[in-house]
Design brief:
heterodimer; A: about 260 residues; Pectate Lyase C-like; twelve-stranded mixed β-sheet; 3 helices; 12 strands; B: Glutamine Phosphoribosylpyrophosphate, subunit 1, domain 1; Alpha-Beta Plaits; six-stranded antiparallel β-sheet; five-stranded antiparallel β-sheet
Chain lengths: ~260, ~300
């Protein structure tokens, strides 16, 4: 990327200050495919950007991503990307618009701060899936680790397998749908949003309570299941914020003095 | 940050675990370039292998260093003889790290204490099949230096270190041998907050700690429990309640490889389980460094303890 070559020396040999776009893709009209086995993280991301931003490609297939970290990040336009293999940590973070299919597992913090789009993960996901998610859908066909959707501010996370502990920690908006069992501390300190669980809940976190599943919820669940071709949804319980920790209208004593 | 890795071949199969562990650790170099360590299990023998260092080798290489090390080495050899160990051979891959093969059937504690009484001598491991190799630099540097490619064995753990709690030197590098119990070693990713409490407790029961590193207590803690009669899995379960802090650690014994995660699931671990082997690491790239086909991996959950037998 222009303007990114500020670093010229890296004593630990870990950064790639001088990576060039490899330009190795097979391009067919608006589709492109490339093999990432021998490419570094930076080269893969440069190749993706080159295809999407400079060649008008809308459909990219990446073969052998090899569980490398930080792949497919910061893509800000509508497109389709398919990863044939696993991604490492921080995959597909900071994206706005793409529809991504990952035919493998992902490590920690996939889709961190995603703004919009769809990411479908065909196998398991690590912890912190969809951390600070702002919008869009994340569908995980396998299990997820701990702290899924921590600080979530919008969008939907749909998990077909089990989940670890402290999911929806400090969640502020959006929805989480778990078809399997979830670990302890579900919805701890959540502000708002809704969590749907079809399996067992080990324990609820502070100020997370069970809510009533109403028509709007059924409509949402059926819509999401039909979009992703998942059949008819099982029976879900719903968990929401108990609002016992809400203190938005209460002023601190010294603040009150100022107001008076 | 640190990165840890483990691999165990099942049904008694052996492989070039030296090369495999090097590939796994090298792929995680970005998690810790300060030092790299290996705990490798070769074929079990009647003889005992002692890995020890004489001085760090990375500082104080002043005038007369060579003579001093040579004198200390001779002293170690004579002390081995005095305590009743028959020295088969002593080899040195560097001028400060040695590997002694001895016949000895006595208690290991007096042996280790007697050797470490030589100034600058640190015993890295003692065992019938365990060998701990650790030094500064990345995995390939250490593997080249110690000729680890071609080390056949059944299971291994390794560690790449980003030093946060103590110095960058060999004694601060993982894995840690569970002094004075043979064939037990531990690697750890995380921090222990009740380290001093356990260090004092274990020191009162006569154990010595060679480093200021919090991870060293895990090895001794587990080995003590096993010596008291607990199976490895039970000892590891107890550690979840008795050790405070964040951790994912791996423990190896002559027959098994165990891994435990703390109650907050704060440190990463990726697990790959197949019929013929189990591989695990802080990152999936490390597993893919030794498996050449598409695989399914998973993340163990909080408070999970898994033990795999060879």
């Amino acid at each position: 990327m222009p303007g990114e070559s500020g670093i010229t020396y890296d004593a630990r040999g870990l950064a790639e200050p001088d990576a060039d776009v490899p330009k190795i893709s097979d391009i067919d009209d608006t589709c492109a495919t490339f093999d990432a086995a021998d490419l570094t993280t930076r080269q893969i991301n440069l190749e993706l950007r080159w295809l999407l931003y400079e060649n008008g490609i809308t459909d990219v297939t990446v073969r052998n991503p090899g569980a490398k970290h930080s792949i497919g990040v910061g893509i800000l336009q509508r497109c389709r990307i398919r990863f044939e293999g696993s991604l490492g940590y921080f995959g597909c973070g900071l994206i706005d618009g793409p529809e991504i299919v990952i035919d493998g597992r992902v490590g920690w913090s996939v889709c961190e701060n995603m703004m919009s789009g769809v990411v479908e993960i065909r196998k398991n996901a690590g912890s912190l899936t969809g951390a600070a998610l702002r919008g869009g859908d994340i569908v995980v066909h396998g299990a997820v680790g701990a702290r899924t959707g921590i600080d979530q501010k919008g969008g939907t996370i749909l998990v077909l397998g089990d989940a670890g502990m402290n999911n929806a920690f400090m969640m502020q908006r959006g929805r989480q749908i778990y078809c399997g069992d979830v670990g302890p501390g579900l919805g701890d300190s959540m502000y708002d949003g809704a969590i749907y669980v079809a399996g067992k809940v080990t324990s609820l976190g502070v100020d997370c309570v069970e809510g009533e599943v109403v028509d709007v919820d059924h409509e949402l669940l059926e819509r999401k299941f039909s979009i992703y071709d998942l059949g008819s949804p099982p029976t879900f319980r719903k968990f929401v914020c108990g609002r016992a920790l809400w203190n938005y209208d209460n002023l601190e004593p010294n603040e009150r003095k100022l107001v008076l | 940050m640190c990165g840890i890795a483990g691999i165990i071949h099942k049904q008694g199969a052996t492989a070039d675990i030296g090369a495999q562990m090097t590939a796994m650790l090298q792929s995680m170099k970005h998690r810790g370039p300060d030092s790299t360590g290996y705990a490798l299990f070769g074929p079990s023998a009647d003889q005992i292998v002692i890995r020890f260092t004489l001085g760090d080798g990375h500082d104080g290489r002043g005038f007369g260093m060579h003579q001093r090390v040579e004198r200390d080495r001779a002293e170690v050899e004579s002390r081995l003889a005095k305590i009743g160990a028959t020295v088969d051979r002593i080899e040195g891959d560097t001028d400060y790290a040695y590997r002694a093969v001895v016949d000895y059937d006595g208690d290991l504690k007096p042996l280790a204490d007697y050797l470490e009484d030589v100034k600058g001598c640190e015993v890295l491991s003692i065992g019938h099949s365990l060998e701990i190799i650790k030094d500064l630099g990345d995995a390939e540097t250490v593997a080249d230096q110690y000729h680890l490619a071609g080390f056949d064995g059944t299971h291994a753990i390794g560690h790449v270190r980003m030093a946060t709690e103590s110095d960058v030197d060999i004694s601060g590098a993982h894995p840690y041998w569970a002094y004075p119990f043979n064939d037990v070693a531990v690697v750890h990713n995380g921090q222990l907050t009740n380290y001093f409490l356990w260090k004092r407790r274990l020191e009162r029961s006569g154990h010595r700690f060679q480093s200021e590193c919090d991870s060293e207590i895990i090895a001794v803690y587990l080995a003590q429990k096993m010596a008291d009669g607990l199976p490895l899995a039970d000892a590891m379960h107890e550690s979840l309640d008795e050790l405070d802090g964040v951790f994912t650690y791996m423990c190896v014994t002559a027959d098994a490889l165990g891994v435990a995660k703390d109650e907050m699931a704060a440190k990463p671990l990726v697990l790959y389980e197949a019929d013929d082997l189990v591989a695990m690491a802080s990152e999936e790239v490390a597993i893919r460094a030794v498996i050449d086909h598409e695989i399914d991996t998973s993340d163990p959950y909080e408070r999970q303890v898994l033990v795999f037998d060879r």
